[in-house]
Amino acid sequence: MFISDVVIFYMKKILLQGFPSPGPTAATKNIVFLTDALSVLQALKSSKNKDLNDLTSALTSLSQTHTIALQWIPSHCNVFGNETADLLAKKATALQQNDYTTTYSEAKTIIHAQQHEEWLQEHPNHVQNDAYHALTRAEQVVIFRLRTGHNRLNHHLYTKLHIGTSDQCTCQTGGQTVIHVLQHCPMYENLRNLMWPQDTPMAQKLYGSLEDLRRTATFMSETGLSI
Ligand SMILES: [Zn+2]
């Protein structure tokens, strides 16, 4: 069954933002989730889909203090807010999609990191020293994934997401981590020496000047690795 990651992501995001404690009126105590993703509702009902365990437990915990209803609505039926939701969903599908599942705690970490990034972008005076914000969007994605460790390198895929058969790099000299690729992997030694003729610490590669960050993004692109 196809489960809409986008829908699950936004439901989790809503749940993570939290709800006010129920007040004396029903208005704050009753919550209705309207969704046109019938497959998600069906999967929640059957409660056999492991992808939804975290969502189920988040809903269960919210139901301790609130009355929750999940309501399927067909798309485009003039429900207030539906068009905005559609617009956001369309925008979301245009974004780069992860092709692996994300656990609840990882989604939480990623969302918090993204909210932090959004906050930083809205407060440019606070970040004038971080060259990250002068990068192109594509370069930002690479640097963000290297900085957070949430990426498609084998170490993360294998140890966190249980994808693949080991965390080893194809060079078989160690786990395919960010530090391995940037600093040690023999497969990229020539490329590394070309990009950084002198030994350059990780901190400079990930948090240095605009030129440093660009160099790192270019290096990653030249390795051909899917980050
Ligand atoms: Zn390697």
TrEMBL record:
GO terms for molecular function: nucleic acid binding; RNA-DNA hybrid ribonuclease activity. Coiled coil: none annotated. Residues 1-94 form the RNase H type-1 domain. InterPro entries: RNaseH-like_sf, RNaseH_domain, RNaseH_sf. It comes from the Eukaryota. Gene3D superfamilies: Ribonuclease H-like superfamily/Ribonuclease H. It holds the Pfam family RNase_H. This is RNase H type-1 domain-containing protein.
